[in-house]
Structure formats: structure tokens, C-alpha cells
Sequence to fold (472 residues):
Amino acid sequence: MSKAHFGLIGLGVMGENLVLNAERNGFSSVVYNRTYAKTEEFLKGLGSDKAIQGAKDLQDFVDKLERPRRILMMIKAGSAIDAVIEQISPYLQEGDLLIDGGNSEFRDTERRVAELESKSFGYIGMGVSGGAKGALEGPSMMPGGTKTSYEAIESLVCKMAAQVEDGPCVTYIGPGGSGHFVKTVHNGIEYGIEQILAEAYDLMKRVGGMTGTQMADVLAQWNATEELSSYLVEITEVCLRTKDPDDGSDLVEKIMDQAGQKGTGLWTVVSALELGASVPTIYASLNGRVMSSMKPQRITAEQILHGSAIKPFDLGSSADGMAPLMDAVVLSCMASYAQGMELLRIASAEYNYNLHLPSIAQIWKGGCIIRSRLLKRIQDAFNADPQLSNLLIDPWFAEQVNRRLPGLAKVVAGAAEAGIPVPCFSSTLDYINSYRTARLPQNLVQAMRDCFGSHTYQRVDKEGTFHTEWLD
Ligand SMILES: NC(=O)C1=CN([C@@H]2O[C@H](COP(=O)(O)OP(=O)(O)OC[C@H]3O[C@@H](n4cnc5c(N)ncnc54)[C@H](OP(=O)(O)O)[C@@H]3O)[C@@H](O)[C@H]2O)C=CC1
Ligand SMILES: O=C(CO)[C@H](O)[C@H](O)COP(=O)(O)O
Fold:
């Protein structure tokens, strides 16, 4: 049998779909999974009658691959990746290339790229987004490592990726762990948009008294607009419309209100804090998940801490797409993208990643979880001004902010009066109000710091560094 073009390790949700995608695009494959029973099951099922062979062990796996070998690891992130690298390294030869397609922490990838390249192997850390369906039909992919290593997989990933009007949803991201860094920030934005839609749902349900179907109808209207047309709005409509087969009621109401997380949202926020990037909407979404996990405490606290009773306020009518609520959702989604792009810009300079922000917006336009029509506007904004410090001051986005800010403020005020938490909406409002305020009150913070700790301050009326003996 002739040698296979491509090897895959890890026949999980993503791996099995990616290998079917590669095979459909003309790349014969060999697959290996730690638990061999899964390989057998795959080859008898979805992988049958295809140019896909199985391997029982890693020696057999590498022997079945053409050289230089291109091997995609699609397994659990963390120590599993190091374990597989250690297990397979003795069988690799100069020029062979390992690709980590999982959600690895970017600093782990930095280390692995350096280690593997020093042994004359190639190593690519490649963020992949699109879930199971995207992996099969065409994901968005964010590969980082050396340019030479990328060139060895370019033809493969360009064919496998989702295609949009201006090309495949994959491009060379940059050196080291940059591909995984960009995927991490993608997921931070994803956390933000998910929480924003959850807040809109909570208000429609608790203030508007709407049913799942009524809410789904609003989401359908939003999905038809340039500002909100997106994959996450589309699947939220589906989630809200779906009924429990047991009793025909809204299935979403039967789901435990505790959101899981696997790390990328946390890493986005930690990186932002380390780099001095302001990402409050994304942070609020992460904290929303943390708070959601405190279910027992929340049940107790509900009996002890009494806020105001739910009061109705104007969310708009479903006939006009719930205009103020839509304002809140639009601006909060824009803030999530703006914060993510700003984090990328700052990280690019700090880590010498040389990220090309218009290209990142381009490869997010299809295949990935945060794909949306807005990404075309984001691409245009960074093409028009590659040094744009914040998306929200681009003329098209600024017009949206100026028009929709009163709606966002109205929703946040109403939610506060009604005692309903809207962490992403309120963080977005504070973010925009802070960003558009030329003089903030941190002059007083500086005064306090100088007062207790002689930390000194600058003045607005003269040059220099000053200290005042504030006490006595
Ligand atoms: N699911 C999704 O929507 C997305 C997931 N990702 C990322 O892709 C990666 C894979 O995710 P997914 O396909 O969902 O994962 P699954 O949980 O479906 O599968 C995990 C795979 O990892 C293998 N594995 C786990 N530990 C080890 C180990 N120590 N050594 C060797 N193999 C191991 C498992 O093998 P075994 O069968 O033997 O247990 C299995 O093949 C993760 O990093 C995930 O974060 C990225 C984008 C989207
Ligand atoms: O990478 C993904 C999508 O882009 C994965 O689905 C990831 O698991 C999502 O993150 P979390 O599980 O923390 O919500």
C-alpha cells in the first residue's frame, strides 16, 4: 500500500472530522488513537471505504506516512501533548512536522516549537475553530511556528479550511506560539458573545415574560441584520426554539445554569492583565461562568440578600427587534471584538509576533465559532488603518456607538433597577464611557498614592515629577 500523505493522532470529536475533511480533499491519511478500539470503530464506521488506514502503534503509524511526515495531534491540551511528543519523537526523522491542533496554552507552544525545531523537526501550534461540523466541512485555522514549517502544510490546510469570498480561512499567523495565542483570544471573544446573548435571553425571559419561541423569533430578526448576523446568534435561535422531547417545553429551561470552561477564556484575561490591555467585557463573561458555578452559594444567598423585585422596563417590542436590547447586544459584541483585537495588537508588539490584524479578521469570517458579518467591517477597519488603536473609533463603528449608546444605557439602568445581573452589558457601558472620557478621576488615585507612599505624580499644567507632603 502506498504511503499516506497525512497522519492524525486523536480520534476524538475534532480529530475524526478533520481527518475526513483531509481525505475528502484528496489527502490520504493514517490514524492513530491511544485507545485502539476507537480506531477500529472509526475504520468500520465513518472512516470505512476511504483512503484512511489505521495504525495500532506509533511505529506502525510513522511507517505508513510519506516523508517528510505531516502529523496532526488533535488531543487533550496540556501534559497529553508533551507525552505524545515524547512517545513519537524516537520514530521521527529530520524534517518531519508535528502540528498541535488543540487548544494549547501559547507559552507551552513557544517551548515546544523551540525544543522540536532544535532537533530539526518542524512544529506548528495551530488553533482550530468550528466545532465538529466546522472540522468536517471547513474550519478556521490559525497556524503559528516557522514560515518553513507552515509552507509544508499550506496546501493541506488551504484546502481543508472554510472558504470565504477572499480566500481560505487560514493564513500563516506568525512565529512561536502566535497561532495558539490568536486562537485563545478568539475564544475570549467567543466567551463574551455567548454571555451577551445569555444576558439578552435573561432579560427577554424575566422582564419581557417571553417564551423560547418568541425569543427565538427575535434572534432570527437579529440574525438578518448586518450588525448581528453571526453563527452564535444563529445557534442561539436554535437553542431557544428547541423543545424537550419528554414534555414539549423549552429544553433550555431544563439545563443546569452552570457553565463549564476549559481554560482559553481565563488565559485571554490573564494575558490581557499581564499586557495592560483592557478587556472588561471578556472578563465579565469569564466571571459570569465562575459565578454560575457557585450554584449552592447562590441558592443560599437568594434567601438572605434581597434586591428589588423584578420591575418591567422598556426592552422594545418584538416588532422592532427589541431596539434598545439590540443596541445593548450590538455594542457589547462590538466591544468584545474591539477588546480582542486590541489585545492582539498589544501582544503582537510585546511578543514580536508581527500579527496582521486584517488577515486575522479575514480568516475568522468563515468556519469559526465567532464568524459574523461584522468581521468584514473589522477587516476593512484594520485595512484602512493598520495602526488603529481601537476598533470603536473607526468611523463605521463610531457611528454605531454614538447611535446605540443611549439604548445600552437604558437597558443597563433598567436591569439595575430590576435587580437582574447584566455583567457584559454593564461592563461594556463602563468600557465605552471610560474610553470616551478624556479626563478620568485617576488624578485622585495618584494623589492618594503620593500621599501614603510618596509615589510622585505628574501635573497637567507643568512638566516634571512632583511630590507633596500631604499629611501634617
Ligand atoms: N470540541 C471542540 O469543539 C473543539 C476542541 N478543540 C480542542 O481540540 C482538542 C481535542 O478536542 P476534542 O476532539 O473535543 O477532544 P475529545 O475529548 O473528543 O477527544 C480527546 C482525544 O484526546 C486523546 N487523548 C487524551 N489524553 C491523551 C493522552 N494522554 N495521550 C494520547 N491521547 C490522549 C483521546 O484519546 P482516547 O480515545 O484514548 O481517550 C481522544 O482521542 C482539545 O485541545 C480541544 O480543546 C478545539 C476546537 C474545538
Ligand atoms: O475552542 C473551542 C471553540 O472555539 C472549544 O469548543 C472550546 O472547548 C470552547 O471553550 P470552553 O469549553 O472553555 O467554552
